[in-house]
Amino acid sequence: MDTTTAPAPVGVGTGVGVGTDAAPLGRPPAVRRRRPPVHLLRRWVSPVALVGLWQLASSTGVLDERKLASPAQVAATAVDLVQAGTLGTQTLISLQRVGLGFAIGASIGLALAVVAGLSRIGEDAIDPPMQMLRTLPHFGLVTLFIIWFGIGETPKVALIALGATFPLYLNTLGGIRGIERKTLEAAKALHLTWAQRIRHVVIPGALPQTLVGLRQSLGIAWLSLIVAETIASQSGLGHMINHAKDFLQTDVIVVGLAVYSLLGLATDAVVRHLERKALAWRS
Amino acid sequence: MALLTPQSTTDRDDASRPTGEHVARVRGHHRSFGDTHVLRAIDLDVRHGEIVALLGRSGCGKSTLLRSLAALDPVPAGEVEVSGRTGVAFQEPRLLNWRTVHQNVALALLNSPERKQRLGLAEAALAEVGLGEKLDAWPLELSGGQAQRVSLARALVSNPALLLLDEPFSALDALTRIEMHQLVIELWRRHSMAILLVTHDVDEALALADRLVVMDAGRIGRTWEITLPRSERAPSQPDIARTRAEVLAALGVRPTPRNPRRDPVTGELGPTHHQPTKRGAA
């Protein structure tokens, strides 16, 4: 196992997990203020300037090309990789892993939260082990997973699933618990059945918090993917990055990292859009 | 549908309403939580179309009795009988914030025989409480008074025989409260349901009820029948003033000298003696 690459994915991970930091548990995402277009434009000045400085440092030889490729080189490599089909293929493989792992983890987290949230017995049975397991740094389980599942797809998907389970579990459970007893009682006074109360009160009432959990779970799913792919993989973006490392192709590494963060940003944007649609009632 | 067709707009303060039939009958009802006896041997009848105000200090058991009647808590068999549907409105509107005003009201008919027409009936009920324009609003967009009216519409849309109101106006400002009193009386005249109003506002009880029942420490205490038409129930009216003093005494409030700032018509405290606008026949 190559441990020297570990810091890189973690660093990228904080970028991927933007959504995790933006919406702390228990607080609904704030309504975004509309900024005037001039202001929006102004916010692009410093990032563009930074890339310009980077290019300048590379062109003048201040920045060693073997340590970090220039932005122009990175862009050219990205075009090459896309045209060769490598980037698309590897990205698709990574997407499949994260999709499968997230689907499994999210389903488990949601199901456990619903059972624990709706019944006392379920809560007593499920919550203690979940609270203990969630404190376990799940990346630490990689070693065990490789012993258990080998180095195929299973340990990667399992790591992603495990990481995605807890934020959705905790937030959904918190959302269900946060529904006011008085509101549930009003539904009872309307003679709604148990199933109707779940459908009209519990699920929509817990939804804001569940969506916060969804964003956190997605962020962790991406992080887990990067860790899993970097440690042992014969394909995927992580493999592409690892392979490039052996040949000091810093341009390929940067392209891989950029794709990771773009994918993370894209999924986060999808959830934000979902939030705006589903939570219109809070405006 | 009784909700859509006003049955009678005449003042029903006379003795024309049906008596003898009870919409609710409570016999020897007892409730305790642990060692605390909240209700002790309660006997109470509510006649069809009657407004009963249940008064008492906090913790006297009046809300617990309402919960028994609303079947919100499990009750020993035979102690509480309610014939016909009930509708409940609480101190807080308790609306589902994630459903529109229209959907909130329609939900009350989800398990009723009228479930197919529930959207139309909900619209009519909202129009009745003056919120026909707010069908698609979210509850969080409403003022406190509007939200409480939605809550009333939701309680009434199923056309209940007994409307249970648990201090529904106590969180509203004084002016909104007066409007709500008038609205409740209007709705009551139209639908002729019985109302059990839990309140600790003696003046509210005097303005609205046919019968005042004081509860103390889980027991039913004194009862007053008010036969005076609602339009004649000014606080200065001798019978009303006397009943008011008696009820307050039964609640353990010592009499205070008459406050010159108290409005002689509404009983509201205010800086001036301006005559308030009279709406409806309440």
Question: How would you characterize the overall build of this protein?
Answer:
The complex is a heterodimer of chains A (283) and B (282). Chain A contains 13 helices and no strands. Chain A is mostly helical. Chain A has a domain at 86-282: MetI-like (MetI-like fold, Orthogonal Bundle), CATH 1.10.3720.10. Chain B has seven helices and nine strands; from the N terminus they run E-E-E-H-E-E-H-H-H-E-H-E-H-E-E-H. The two termini of chain B are 25 Å apart. Chain B has helices at residues 62-69, 101-106, 118-128, 144-156, 174-191, 202-208, 238-250, and strands at 22-33, 36-47, 51-55, 80-82, 86-89, 162-166, 194-199, 211-216, 219-225. The A-B interface holds A 180, 182-183, 185-193, 196, 200-201, 204-205, 207, 280-283 and B 70, 72, 86, 88, 90, 92, 94-99, 107-108, 110-112, 138-140, 154.
Which helices and strands occur, and which strands form pairs?
The complex is a heterodimer of chains A (283) and B (282).
Chain A: H1 7-16, H2 18-22, H3 37-42, H4 45-59, H5 71-84, H6 86-118, H7 120-134, H8 142-149, H9 153-178, H10 181-189, H11 194-231, H12 237-246, H13 250-278
Chain B: E1 22-33, E2 36-47, E3 51-55, H1 62-69, E4 80-82, E5 86-89, H2 101-106, H3 118-128, H4 144-156, E6 162-166, H5 174-191, E7 194-199, H6 202-208, E8 211-216, E9 219-225, H7 238-250
Parallel strand pairs in B: 3-7, 3-8, 5-6, 6-7
Antiparallel strand pairs in B: 1-2, 1-4, 8-9
Helix pairs in contact in B: 3-4
Summary, kept brief:
Chain A is an all-alpha fold and 283 residues long. Chain A has helices spanning 7-16, 18-22, 37-42, 45-59, 71-84, 86-118, 120-134, 142-149, 153-178, 181-189, 194-231, 237-246, 250-278.
Give the number of DSSP strands of chain B: 9
Report the β-strand fraction of chain A as a percent range: under 5%
Estimated structural class of chain B: alpha/beta
Biggest β-sheet strands, sense, barrel of chain B: 6 strands, mixed
**Mean pLDDT across every amino acid position of chain B:** 85
Query: Portion of residues in helices of chain B?
Result: 25-40%
- What is the total domain count of chain B? 1
CATH class group of the domain at 86-282 in chain A: Mainly Alpha
CATH superfamily descriptor of the domain at 86-282 in chain A: MetI-like
Number of strands of chain A: 0
Shape of chain A: globular
Question: Mind telling me the CATH superfamily name of chain B?
Answer: P-loop containing nucleotide triphosphate hydrolases
Membrane topology (chain A): Multi-pass membrane protein
Transmembrane segments (chain A): 100-121, 133-151, 157-176, 220-241, 253-271
Pfam family, one (chain A): BPD_transp_1
Family (chain A): Belongs to the binding-protein-dependent transport system permease family.
